[in-house]
């Protein structure tokens, strides 16, 4: 189903909660553009850009990269997709980043994936990634058709440097200290004006209600760890 107006969403959750996996499914169903801060940083590292080389050690150690660097990177990249509906994955991750985003775009909805840390640690040890596309696999949950190879391109899959148990623990700490306050920021933020209903807008509100019911269902699945 394609959306009839520009719809802007953010997906949040601890590292390894399934943001990339769920995003893939949402963008396929609703025709949104997907922008992942982690994929963008890894692409810079792979291309050995100045920024990628500078940020690599931060990422490998499980620390967040500086707010001004990531905000500039993401907001610049968003200019390429701002005529479409989008889903942001991994940004914002601090209150300062959320404020930078708010200065330019208003977000329609925030999806939060709530997954216990023990489950996350298990998932990350069996995660495999196709680096060029960001496609994510899991040996237990979502294995590739041929072990070690991407389903679409047949290229080799890799494991991430920051998926070691020690680094995952650091990433979860960074999430608690720096990213959880962003959820509170969005909870407290004033809700947007409700739509004024006209015949034309009735269709729009039905569409929006449909999307919200799907997203609520996804959230519920994750809350129940399915
Ligand atoms: P990023 O790439 O964004 O990493 P992350 O937030 O730690 O999240 P992950 O990509 O690890 O996991 P995910 O939630 O997408 O889960 P996935 O779908 O893969 O960021 C990496 C680093 O970049 C950060 O640590 C930081 O240094 C830096 N960075 C990025 N953005 C930044 C920002 N805004 N500010 C500052 N620094 C930033 O799923 C995980 C596994 O579980 C997979 O194997 C998957 O197949 C499996 N799985 C998914 N769903 C299920 C399910 N329902 N059941 C069973 N298994 C499942």
Task: Outline the fold blueprint.
Blueprint: E1 8-12, H1 19-30, E2 33-36, H2 37-46, H3 50-60, H4 67-78, E3 86-89, H5 95-102, E4 109-112, H6 117-125, E5 127-130, E6 135-138, H7 165-188, H8 199-223
Parallel strand pairs: 1-3, 1-4, 2-3
Antiparallel strand pairs: 5-6
Helix pairs in contact: 2-3, 4-5, 6-7
The structure holds BIS(adenosine)-5'-pentaphosphate.
Region (LID): 126-163
InterPro entries: Adenyl_kin_sub, Adenylat/UMP-CMP_kin, Adenylat_kinase_CS, Adenylate_kinase_lid-dom, AK3/Ak4_mitochondrial, P-loop_NTPase
Subcellular location: Mitochondrion matrix
Question: Short summary of the structure?
Answer:
With 226 residues, this protein is of the alpha/beta class.
Give keywords.
226 residues, alpha/beta, four-stranded parallel sheet, two-stranded antiparallel sheet, 8 helices, globular, binds BIS(adenosine)-5'-pentaphosphate, nucleotide-binding, Adenyl_kin_sub, EC 2.7.4.10
Question: How would you portray this structure in words?
Answer:
With 226 residues, the protein is α/β, with parallel strands linked by helices. Helix content is 49%, strand content 11%. It has 8 helices and 6 strands. Strands 2-3-1-4 form a 4-stranded parallel sheet, sandwiched between helices. Strands 5-6 form a two-stranded antiparallel sheet. Helix 2 (37-46) packs across helix 3 (50-60), helix 4 (67-78) packs parallel to helix 5 and helix 6 crosses helix 7 (165-188). The longest helix has 25 residues, at 199-223. The radius of gyration is 18 Å and the shape is globular. The model is unreliable at 193-206 (pLDDT under 50). The chain binds BIS(adenosine)-5'-pentaphosphate. BIS(adenosine)-5'-pentaphosphate is lined by residues 13, 15-21, 37-38, 41, 58-59, 62-65, 70, 90-91, 93, 97, 123, 127, 136-138, 141-142, 162, 171. Residues 13, 15-21, 37-38, 41, 58-59, 62-65, 70, 90-91, 93, 97, 123, 127, 136-138, 141-142, 162, 171 line the site of BIS(adenosine)-5'-pentaphosphate (AP5). Involved in maintaining the homeostasis of cellular nucleotides by catalyzing the interconversion of nucleoside phosphates. Has GTP:AMP phosphotransferase and ITP:AMP phosphotransferase activities. It catalyses: GTP + AMP = GDP + ADP; a ribonucleoside 5'-triphosphate + AMP = a ribonucleoside 5'-diphosphate + ADP. AMP binds at residues 37, 42, 63-65, 90-93, 97, 160, 171.
């Amino acid at each position: 189903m394609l959306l009839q107006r520009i719809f802007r969403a953010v997906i949040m959750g601890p590292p390894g909660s399934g943001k990339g996996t769920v995003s893939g499914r949402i963008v396929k169903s609703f025709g949104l553009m997907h922008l992942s801060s982690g994929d963008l940083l890894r692409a810079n590292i792979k291309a050995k850009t100045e920024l990628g080389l500078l940020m690599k050690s931060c990422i490998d150690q499980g620390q967040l990269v500086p707010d001004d660097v990531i905000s500039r990177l993401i907001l610049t990249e968003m200019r390429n997709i701002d005529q479409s509906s989008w889903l942001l994955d991994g940004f914002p991750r601090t209150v300062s980043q959320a404020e930078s985003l708010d200065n330019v775009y208003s977000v329609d909805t925030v999806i939060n994936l709530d997954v216990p840390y023990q489950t996350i640690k298990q998932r990350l040890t069996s995660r495999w990634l196709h680096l060029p596309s960001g496609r994510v696999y899991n040996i237990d949950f979502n294995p590739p058709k041929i072990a070690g190879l991407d389903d679409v391109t047949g290229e080799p899959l890799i494991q991430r440097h920051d998926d070691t148990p020690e680094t995952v623990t650091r990433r979860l700490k960074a999430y608690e200290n720096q990213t959880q306050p962003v959820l509170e920021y969005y909870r407290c933020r004033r809700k947007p004006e409700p739509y004024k209903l006209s015949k034309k807008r009735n269709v729009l509100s039905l569409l929006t209600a449909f999307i919200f019911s799907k997203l609520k269902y996804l959230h519920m699945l994750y809350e129940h760890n399915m």
